[in-house]
Prior knowledge:
By secondary structure, this protein is an alpha/beta fold. It is built from 13 helices and 10 strands.
Amino acid sequence: xxxxxxxxxxAFGSPSRYVQxxxxxxxxxxxxxxxxxxxLAIIDTFFYASMKDRIEELFAQKGMxxxxxxxxxxxxxxxxxxxxxxxxxxPKIPDTFIxxxxxxxxxxxxxxxxxxxxxxxxxxxxxxxxxxxxxxxxINNEGAMFDRIVHYKNxxxxxxxxxxxxxxxxxxxxxGIGDALATYIEAEASFANNNVCNAGGGTYRPTQLGMAxxxxxxxxxxxxxxxxxxxxxxxxxxxxxxDVAEATILLSGLGFECTGVSVAHxxxxxxxxxxxxxxxxxGTGVGYGALVQxxxxxxxxFPEVFSFCKDTGIPTCTAELGLTEENRDENIRLLIExxxxxxxxxxxxxxxxxKEMLKNAIFELDAYAKKQK
Length: 373
């Protein structure tokens, strides 16, 4: 996610194909056959036992060969080495790599596909982040925030089987909603600041299509997000759930990668600096950061977005981050010190941001949330 002033040229990137709907998992052999007759499925630990035999049988029915390997949930250098060694020990390097699981499973799949310069397909099992569609993979060392980003290309296919995603825990859907909620808010700020977009290698401005994808994602969430959230609570693939699935995975994925990120992502990236904050998923923290950004910008949409966050499980105050009256001030001080100097996207807005402004926005959000109870 680069920083810098954009030239007059513009860029857009996307997966080659996006497929969504109930039962689409069963069509993986047909999608993979475009690249050859062998595949390696990298499957999240949680799903490995239930999906290993299923995917091997699906491919065998089509006269193809699928291997399966369990992913330990850590997108790290050590895991990459293990998966590369596993792949090289197979009778041949598979034609297609298939990542099945959460954001880190999708990231490691993209990284392994990039290593072998092969096709790759991402199959998210929850609507929890933009990772399935994006070009980059964040590779961590143990205990590090991140230390390496692998870029190669967007996935050849993103396959969202909504019969699978609707069974995911509701807090994961909240995370995906929060990540998507911030996309257009951040895109507007980044565009107004003439920052480069994430697509194209760090010199290009967004296309109109990139900005439109971000806006459509936001509009769908505001119109149908609450209904979709209730459908997910009841494990029901309603029409609104399907639309919000597209908004959280495809449209938000295109939106963030083809525009830019700002305060919301910058704040979330520093959450680890708060020793008393509870652990939460990436998108959940980003959704909270979007509220802080709206306060910072004095944005008239703030009341509407605040109400939406309350209804969809996104934190709206520091108490919901796990902080107390006794430790709030010190934790927020540590957060601001971390992000102000180390996260360039905190400054990716068309006005100067000071540490005092960030603190005031967080405390103003707390005061507003207290009045709503």
